[in-house]
Amino acid sequence: MYASTFIFKAGQYDDEFHRLDAQIAEAARAMPGYLGEETWENAQTGLIQNVYYWESEQALLQLIQHPTHLEAKSKQSRWLDGYRVVISKVLREYGDGALAMQAATAAK
């Protein structure tokens, strides 16, 4: 499993941002290999994290190369006060079972 974590600080959003953001999320959820997503916000720093989970690196690359994603990336400075992306290979996942497969159930 792979995780792509988009970490950013919000700036001024407009209608185009919301449209592209919704289209990217819809495209990701429709892609083979998409497992789910989670969003986190740190109120102290103002940072937001969107984490998408993927079966494979190839599945993740589909989103990275998607035309809507590329369009939003080219315009990000209009809406964000900085960002970074972390691509990770997940070696293992475990817990007490209460939250097991939380990411995968989001995709269903």
TrEMBL record:
Instruction: Print the keywords alphabetically.
Output: Monooxygenase, Oxidoreductase
Q: Which GO terms describe its molecular function?
A: monooxygenase activity
InterPro entries the record matches: ABM_dom, Dimeric_a/b-barrel
Q: Where is the ABM domain?
A: 1-90
Kindly provide the name given to this protein in its UniProt entry. Antibiotic biosynthesis monooxygenase
Q: Which organism is it from?
A: Trinickia dabaoshanensis
